[in-house]
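TA notes, week 10

Several of you asked for a full example with nothing omitted. So below is the full record: structure tokens for the whole chain, then the designed sequence directly under it. When grading your own attempts, check the secondary structure regions first.
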């Protein structure tokens, strides 16, 4: 398993799939091991995917100082990986909560980015939070059939309370995927085993974000940025994703039809072709 040493001595692992130009891939969760990304819908057919296991997840070591789980501390890990790979500028993809790590990295190291893809990203780092109303707006697009009506009721209970029961999360799971098929069920079932919950709790902890400074930093990003939202996702809704794209000088939005929070599972061919076209041409 390839690895490198972070600035604080923590050994961080990454997984390589495919051949071609490298694409650094950062998982969401927050703090979920990169295994759930798979080959990103076949994107590895034309790219060398470098999937980082964030500190304390997957095959990466637990840091001696667990306060370094906070996302702003992990910017240095991404920069160390770039240097380890010998890349002057890099193409970068992040999913969901990993989008916050990329936003902080982009603000700190704008000159190191060539093209960046943010897949169904959250944007706490720039003060664009997803609200319960956003989440329910996406969920209610499914209303009128099962298992979605039951899932919506469970999601309403989760969002009204303090996190929700395990049973409610299982009932709500179909809302996170474009299709609730065997692939989606297996993907959801693997989620608890792949996440470091202590690290997830610390990821966006107090002091992690300075939105005005990050927004100002993003104005210095010269590379193209694609924010890829999903039609059926509430986290974020496409309108909120568009606001994130607008913070980058060369930011653009696309919306994958019929997709949920993990769009490479819903239409792998479309997803891989769209991302590859952007990485090749910037459009």
């Amino acid at each position: 398993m390839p690895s490198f040493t972070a600035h604080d001595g923590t050994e961080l692992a990454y997984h390589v799939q495919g051949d071609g130009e490298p694409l650094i891939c950062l998982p969401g969760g927050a703090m979920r091991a990169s295994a759930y990304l798979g080959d990103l819908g076949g994107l590895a057919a034309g790219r060398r995917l470098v999937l980082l296991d964030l500190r304390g997840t997957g095959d990466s070591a637990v840091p001696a100082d667990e306060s370094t789980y906070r996302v702003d501390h992990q910017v240095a890990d991404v920069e160390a990986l770039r240097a380890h790979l010998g890349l002057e500028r890099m193409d970068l993809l992040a999913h969901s909560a990993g989008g916050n790590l990329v936003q902080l990295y982009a603000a700190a190291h704008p000159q190191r980015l060539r093209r960046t893809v943010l897949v169904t990203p959250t944007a706490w780092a720039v003060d664009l939070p997803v609200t319960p109303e956003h989440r329910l707006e996406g969920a209610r697009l499914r209303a009128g059939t099962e298992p979605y009506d039951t899932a919506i009721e469970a999601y309403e209970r989760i969002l009204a309370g303090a996190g929700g029961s395990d049973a409610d999360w299982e009932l709500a799971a179909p809302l996170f995927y474009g299709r609730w098929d065997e692939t989606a069920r297996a993907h959801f079932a693997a989620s608890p085993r792949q996440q470091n919950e202590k690290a997830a709790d610390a990821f966006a902890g107090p002091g992690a974000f300075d939105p005005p400074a990050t927004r100002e930093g993003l104005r210095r990003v010269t590379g193209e940025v694609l924010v890829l939202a999903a039609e059926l996702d509430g986290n974020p809704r496409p309108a909120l994703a568009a606001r994130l794209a607008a913070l980058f000088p060369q930011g653009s939005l696309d919306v994958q039809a019929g997709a949920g929070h993990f769009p490479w599972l819903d239409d792998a061919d479309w997803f891989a072709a769209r991302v590859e076209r952007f990485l090749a041409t910037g459009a």
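The domain at 3-127+194-281 is CATH 3.40.50.1820 (Rossmann fold). Use that as a sanity check on your answer.
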